């Protein structure tokens, strides 16, 4: 009984996928240039909302990272690639905006709130941990993913086993990014503040690790996994995660309607498979990365 109903539902699912594929080719939706998202040309929004403004404009400016493999990485092509990029495309697609309508702006950790406050970007999707300090300046929609802080070292290092190694040897230097939660969190694990070296972006930490200016890099596990994957075996991750980093989409403070739109759009994406596709085509390709399920969103405020 169970088996046959599973068979039916699998067949039904296959048929549904086939219909969707046909609709995508011939119908109003076009998913040509978006990885996971089908552009919704028929959405209607209340007048005066951010959604209506963006839909009418047919374009959106989005902040993301440009140097984080798996989440936001800009190579030789114009557009960055990664899970955050795909999540942002899903949000834009729901507003009827395709890839050509998106302008990507690099937003290193320390400038995310400022770029939102200044209206330079409509949203930030950039491995952006939801926390109370940041909520004083912006609103978060999410979480849409939960990461955790970890430590990365050179592959031939056996002395550093986790964050506790830094107190045991005060000569060790660890790199993180200014304005990030990991740069704050690591403080309690250090014998002296001078053990922490900060740059504006994580690729500079990876370079400093490679050239032995520092002994470790600390940030979210998934960012480190991306850097390990790109390191040709030079780096490895050690120890367990020791914080929780729930990622949210940053928007203008108090734009509750836009926040609710983002939460609803991501919920739909988790139901129709585009959230999972966004993952499997990006960060999910990195070894050791687990496919997530969309966390329950916080109330928008
Ligand atoms: N998720 C952490 C943060 O938002 C670290 C990653 C980053 O710097 O983007 O601060």
Automatic annotation (TrEMBL):
Superkingdom, natural source: Bacteria
Ribonucleoprotein listed as a keyword: no
SUPFAM superfamilies: Periplasmic binding protein-like II (SSF53850)
Solute-binding protein family 3/N-terminal domain segment(s): 59-286
Range of residues in the leader sequence: 1-26
Alphabetical UniProt keywords: Signal, Transport
UniProt-listed CDD domains: PBP2_GluB
Family membership: Belongs to the bacterial solute-binding protein 3 family.
Protein name from the UniProt record: Glutamate transport system substrate-binding protein
Native species: Kineosporia succinea
């Amino acid at each position: 009984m169970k088996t046959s109903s599973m068979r039916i539902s699998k067949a039904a699912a296959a048929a549904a996928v086939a219909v969707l594929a046909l609709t995508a080719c011939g119908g109003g939706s076009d998913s040509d240039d978006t990885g996971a998202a089908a552009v919704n040309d028929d959405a209607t929004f209340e007048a005066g909302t951010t959604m209506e403004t963006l839909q009418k404009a047919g374009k959106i400016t989005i902040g993301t990272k440009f140097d984080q493999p798996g989440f936001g990485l800009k190579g030789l092509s114009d557009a960055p690639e990664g899970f955050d990029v795909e999540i942002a495309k899903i949000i834009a697609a729901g507003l009827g905006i395709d890839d050509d309508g998106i302008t990507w702006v690099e937003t290193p950790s320390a400038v995310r709130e400022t770029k939102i406050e200044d209206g330079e970007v409509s949203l930030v999707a950039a491995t952006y941990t939801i926390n109370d300090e940041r909520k004083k300046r912006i609103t978060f929609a999410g979480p849409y993913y939960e990461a955790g802080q970890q430590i990365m070292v050179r592959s031939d290092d056996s002395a550093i086993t986790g964050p506790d190694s830094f107190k045991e040897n005060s000569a060790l230097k660890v790199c993180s990014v200014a304005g990030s939660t990991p740069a704050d969190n690591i403080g309690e694990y250090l014998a002296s503040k001078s053990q922490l070296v900060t740059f504006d972006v994580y690729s500079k930490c990876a370079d400093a690790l490679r050239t032995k200016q520092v002994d470790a890099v600390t940030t979210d596990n998934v960012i480190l996994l991306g850097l390990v994957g790109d390191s040709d075996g030079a780096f490895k991750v050690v120890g367990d995660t020791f914080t929780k980093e729930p990622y949210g989409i940053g928007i203008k403070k108090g734009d509750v309607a836009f926040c609710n739109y983002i939460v609803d759009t991501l919920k739909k994406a988790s139901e129709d498979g585009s959230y999972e596709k966004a993952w499997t085509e990006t960060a999910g390709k990195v070894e050791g990365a687990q496919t997530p399920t969309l966390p329950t969103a916080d109330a928008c405020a």
